[in-house]
């Protein structure tokens, strides 16, 4: 056996030498190839401010269950790349297969989970993710030295997945960290993640900023920092630091088929976190600005119809009667391109900046109306998160007796009679020309227009009958326009803009 080992050693000696040479070449490269030297200094300075978040929850086990209760998990959009990861994670943390009660008896049981967080005030204030503490009966903060302290919930914001905790500081002085400016982060800049992956305790990883303002469709205010710093299960709620030791983000999500880090992690930027934390500490709830409009994307076709070059901004599809935008003179068809001095490139830009603006503040809003820029002053209201919008289910039925129709744009159009209102359950407040048929091969079908929709305006002018629509479409063709902009209402009166080809 010994001879065999010596033989293999001699046999692989050239390979080892080659590897050593390669290592020598790497070592001769600049030190920055291994990352900046300041990482150790930053970690040493902030490690005591990073805490583990331990939660427990009593759940009722269903009799005869063969798997653990999933418990509370983050609400993610269907088909999200994170669904599989969180399904896996929460199933495992609640007990996994075999975690059900024996003999079919439903016995309450206590489940535990661990996450990460960080101290922002030596008076005993910590920040973490909402999904780390969601539905917990008891929350404990575990310091870097192992000290365990019971914590209370100050408030949560589900839309940004953030939570603020308070606890009684121990005799030993606490270390708190400060927030940095996430807006100043550059692509390729080094960042450091510290947290509690797989319950291992304070773990430091480093990487770069891979992307900024990343929208992953997990919420209305998505603007994540993407990083390749290793983030794993248990890192949720932990801080992402810059090389000055400032918190620039809160580690929240990863993309991973296995649940382990593959170098694609996401952190809520400090710009968002600061506003949420301040509001939760002051009011115990989040108070967001409210404009009182419904918005949609400005597509290339819509931009061409509105004489906007290049396509940009947020198109106002509807204005609430009791909202702040109404008295300011903002109307459907306006395109918001600047809000409170900030450029609006797409609808989510407007959602984020409005939500982050103080309630009651008067702001300047720049709109484009019929190809010209105009300015409006708006005093923001407060968004009521408890105003749940219930989408009414509507059953569209084909009329028993087909009315007289006229064709245009691949649509069968008819006057909005009393009979059609009843059949399609259209509110009395909705005015215009009703669609009772759509050519499946038309642009209208591709844009999801359907029977029961009502055309309210064509090229930003009201229409009362099908002849009006045909006349305006014919005129646009003569003028050399490629598309026509329709303002369309559903049965409930909710409006949206649709651009259809006139060629």
From TrEMBL:
SMART domains: PDZ (SM00228). It comes from the Bacteria. It is found in: Periplasm. It is an enzyme of class 3 (hydrolase). One of its GO terms (molecular function) is serine-type endopeptidase activity. PROSITE patterns: PDZ. It catalyses: Acts on substrates that are at least partially unfolded. The cleavage site P1 residue is normally between a pair of hydrophobic residues, such as Val-|-Val. GO terms for biological process: proteolysis. One of its GO terms (cellular component) is periplasmic space. Residues 280-371, 388-491 form the PDZ domain. The active site is at 131 (charge relay system), 161 (charge relay system), 236 (charge relay system). InterPro entries: PDZ, PDZ_sf, Pept_S1C_Do, Peptidase_S1_PA, Peptidase_S1C. Belongs to the peptidase S1C family. This is Probable periplasmic serine endoprotease DegP-like. It comes from Bradyrhizobium sediminis.
């Amino acid at each position: 056996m010994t001879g065999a080992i010596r033989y293999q050693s001699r046999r692989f000696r050239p390979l080892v030498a080659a590897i050593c040479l390669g290592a020598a070449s790497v070592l001769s490269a600049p030190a920055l190839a291994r990352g900046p030297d300041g990482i150790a200094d930053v970690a040493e300075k902030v490690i005591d401010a990073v805490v583990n978040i331990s939660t427990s929850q009593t759940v009722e086990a269903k009799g005869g269950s063969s798997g653990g209760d999933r418990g509370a998990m983050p609400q993610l959009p269907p088909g999200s790349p994170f669904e599989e990861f969180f399904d896996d994670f929460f199933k495992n943390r609640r007990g996994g297969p075999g975690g059900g009660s024996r003999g079919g008896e439903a016995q309450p049981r206590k489940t535990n989970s661990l996450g990460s967080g960080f101290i922002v005030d030596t008076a005993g204030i910590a920040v973490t993710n909402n999904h780390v503490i969601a539905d917990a009966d008891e929350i404990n903060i575990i310091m870097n030295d192992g000290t365990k302290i019971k914590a209370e919930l100050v408030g949560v914001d589900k839309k940004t997945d953030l939570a603020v905790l308070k606890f009684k500081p121990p005799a030993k002085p606490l270390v708190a960290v400060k927030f940095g400016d996430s807006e100043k982060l550059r692509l390729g800049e080094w960042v450091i993640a510290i947290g509690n992956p797989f319950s291992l305790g304070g773990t430091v990883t480093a990487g770069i900023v891979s992307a900024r303002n990343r929208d992953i469709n997990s919420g209305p205010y998505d603007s994540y920092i993407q990083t390749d710093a290793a983030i794993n299960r248990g890192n949720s709620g932990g801080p992402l630091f810059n090389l000055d030791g400032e918190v620039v983000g809160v580690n929240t999500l990863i993309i991973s088929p296995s649940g382990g880090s593959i170098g694609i992690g996401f952190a809520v930027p400090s710009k968002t976190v600061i506003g949420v934390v301040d509001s939760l500490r002051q009011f115990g709830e989040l108070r967001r600005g409210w404009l009182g409009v419904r918005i949609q994307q400005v597509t290339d076709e819509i931009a061409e119809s509105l004489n906007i070059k290049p396509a940009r901004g947020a198109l106002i599809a509807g204005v609430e009667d009791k909202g702040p935008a109404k008295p300011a003179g903002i109307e459907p068809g306006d395109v918001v391109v600047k809000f409170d001095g900030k450029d609006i490139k797409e609808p989510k830009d407007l959602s984020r900046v409005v939500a982050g603006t103080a309630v009651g503040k008067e702001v300047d809003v720049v709109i484009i109306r019929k190809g010209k820029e105009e300015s409006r002053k708006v005093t923001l209201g407060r968004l009521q998160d408890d105003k749940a919008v219930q989408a009414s289910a509507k059953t569209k039925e084909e009329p028993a007796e087909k009315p007289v129709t006229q064709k245009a744009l691949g649509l069968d159009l008819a006057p909005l009679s009393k009979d059609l209102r009843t059949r399609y359950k259209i509110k009395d407040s909705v005015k215009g020309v009703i669609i009772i048929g759509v050519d499946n091969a038309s642009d209208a079908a591709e844009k999801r227009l359907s029977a029961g929709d009502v055309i309210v305006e064509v090229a930003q002018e009201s229409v009362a009958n099908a002849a009006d629509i045909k006349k305006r479409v014919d005129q646009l063709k003569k003028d050399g326009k490629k598309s026509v902009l329709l303002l369309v209402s559903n049965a409930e009166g909710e409006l949206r803009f649709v651009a259809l080809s006139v060629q």
